[in-house]
Design brief:
444 residues, 39% strand, mainly beta, rod-shaped, 4-stranded antiparallel β-sheet, single chain, 1 helix
């Protein structure tokens, strides 16, 4: 802070007396006494340049910072000051004097002020002066401008993937002719998935080294201005960090496991990041399953499903699955799960769609019955025959099992009508209801 030297009141009075004597206005030298003492001056009316004003300098280091939520002001304190008056005027042009009327917005006791009441996106000129308890005031600081900026910059454009390799994905883009001071890159598993921040940069390029190898991501970039406003996203671009031969596949997600009767079904999903050639299923009576013990291995498949027939004493096993990449690298084991058990249900019934009598025979064809993952496997069919209509499982004179969906009944008496119905059989030995009855009469 600079201190300007000003003459004191006594010196001013002495100088006036000397001038009067020198002029000889009365012809006699008279010493004129001051009309009032310096202490009688009304200090509340002191201007900054009056001799006894201790606040003869404006606050220094005055700074105005624009922000999204407010405009922040700061300055250096003056030892004699007890308060500071902040005023602002709306800017009307680019020049320092091209402003409207100043109005006081606050009087504060500290050397800072945050203007949260400023209208958004309006440029203001701010100034500050110091006050003391005696009513003295300092000069105003030089005005500085600030804005509560809520306008986001233009979105970057022309986002382009320029490189994919084992180290990552390199992207570049154009600024979009905006006031962005930095750029933030986001990625997602798909355009409809949550966006995750990859990193930020002040340049127009970024290399994403953190993605999972072999997994394709969608990228976008957004600009950020000096107060933190973020633009909308650029165009989308895809990129994949190349999977190295030694890259480990992700663990399978074993999401479906159950036993219905004797049928075990395991289903899982597998990320496509690293190509997988096969899956190995392990089991043990304790969890987690030790997939490092070859004795626990029960099967291998190239599908994302495994089915098997299990006995009643095998319902309490835990299962886990390990994926193996095309390069022979095993994944971590999936979670170990114990399949839920459900009692078996009878299979669905079939229907005979063709009856072909022959010489001493009748041929029957029926529909194959499908079964779901929560149903026991269909193992065959059972044909029931009677020489009287209304054939049932109880009154049938003949029954025959087959694994086919066709049966030829031979050695029959020509001219005799035979009545048939077919039941479906599953691996738990349960039968369906009988199909609708059909009949056939063999020839001689």
């Amino acid at each position: 802070m600079s201190h300007h030297l000003r003459p004191g009141p006594a010196a001013v009075a002495s100088a006036a007396t000397v001038v009067l004597l020198a002029l000889g206005l009365t012809g006699t030298a008279h010493a004129a006494a001051p009309a009032a003492s310096t202490g009688s001056v009304a200090r509340a009316a002191d201007a900054p340049d009056q001799p006894d004003n201790p606040l003869y300098d404006a606050p220094e280091s005055f700074d105005v910072t624009s922000g999204r939520e407010a405009v922040s002001l700061s300055w250096s304190t003056l030892p004699a000051a007890t308060a500071y008056e902040v005023s602002r005027a709306e800017a009307e042009g680019a020049g320092p004097d091209e402003v409207g009327s100043y109005e006081t917005v606050a009087t504060v006791s500290t050397a800072e002020y945050v203007d949260r009441a400023a209208d958004p996106d309006v440029t203001y000129a701010y100034r500050v002066r110091a006050l003391d308890d005696a009513g003295h005031v300092s000069p105003w600081t030089e005005p500085r401008r600030g804005t509560r900026d809520t306008v986001a910059p233009f979105a970057p454009r022309d986002l382009t993937r320029v490189r994919e390799d084992e180290g990552g994905v390199t992207l570049t883009w154009r600024s979009g002719d905006s006031d962005s001071v930095k750029y933030v890159v986001y990625r997602a598993a798909s355009p409809n998935s949550p966006w995750v921040k990859v990193g930020s940069t002040t340049s127009l390029t970024l290399r994403d080294t953190k993605g999972e190898p072999g997994r394709m991501y969608v990228y976008e970039v957004r600009g950020v201005d000096s107060v933190g406003n973020e633009s909308s996203g650029s165009n989308w671009e895809t990129g994949t960090k190349t999977a190295a031969p030694a890259t480990t596949p992700k663990a399978p997600d074993l999401a479906d496991s159950h036993i219905v009767g004797k049928r075990l079904t395991l289903r899982w999903s597998q990320g496509r990041d690293v190509p997988v050639s096969s899956y190995t299923v392990y089991r043990s009576r304790t969890s987690p399953v030790d997939t490092g013990d070859a004795a626990h291995r029960v099967g291998t498949t190239t599908q994302i499903e495994y089915t098997a027939t299990v006995g009643e004493d095998e319902r309490d096993y835990f299962y886990a699955v390990v994926a193996t990449s095309t390069q022979g690298v095993p994944s971590p084991a999936s979670a170990s799960v114990r399949p839920a058990y459900a009692a078996p249900r009878p299979p669905g019934a079939t229907q005979v769609y063709d009856v072909a009598p022959g010489q001493g025979s009748v041929r029957l064809d029926w529909y194959v019955v499908p079964y779901g993952s929560d149903e026991s496997r269909i193992t065959g069919y059972r044909v029931y025959r009677s020489t009287t209509p209304g054939v049932t499982k109880e009154n049938a004179e003949f029954r025959q099992s087959t694994t086919d969906s066709r049966y030829v009944d031979r050695g029959l008496t020509a001219g005799t009508t035979y009545y048939y119905a077919v039941a479906t059989v599953n691996e738990d030995g349960l039968e369906s209801a009988l199909s609708p009855e059909v009949s056939g009469t063999p020839t001689g």
